[in-house]
Amino acid sequence: MFRSFRFSDQFQGIVRGGYRSSTFSNKIDPKKPMCLYELSGGSCNDDSCKSQHERDYQMTDEDLIIDLARYAEGSTPHTRQLFADMLSAKLAHLRASGIHNTDLLVDSIVKNHREFVKDPTRVI
């Protein structure tokens, strides 16, 4: 639910850290407890700690691109496939053109979502 807010035209202006904000872009496993030592401000160096750590749930730039690109827009399977194909082609074109900058790729993904939806009040 929170992740889809990243497609809002207001997201970048409201959220500190933008698309890299760990509040909205993360790999948190809701079934795995967080490390209490890290939650209290420390840095866990215990190799036997089975809890979830910041290093486990932070997204790399590539994780972020993949996560945003996975949102399939459309109300039918056919429409979602058309959207996914269009987005995949645009990203492939950008990368083939030598564009590998994460910010530019993420901006393109978000822009394509907005253009496809054609309703600025609807996020996803």
Silhouette = elongated
Summarize the amount of helix as a percent range.
40-55%
Element order: H for helix, E for strand: HHHHHH
Count of extended strands:
0
How many separate helices?
6
Please identify the structural class as seen in this structure: mainly alpha
Q: In total, how many domains does the architecture comprise?
A: 1
Largest sheet: none
What labels describe this entry?
single chain; mainly alpha; 0% strand; Putative_zinc-finger_domain; 124 residues; 6 helices; elongated
Textual characterization of the structure:
With 124 residues, the protein is mostly helical. It has one domain. The chain is built from 6 helices and no strands. The protein is elongated.
Summary, kept brief:
This protein has helices spanning 11-14, 36-39, 54-57, 61-69, 77-96, 102-117.
Give the arrangement of secondary structure elements.
Elements: H1 11-14, H2 36-39, H3 54-57, H4 61-69, H5 77-96, H6 102-117
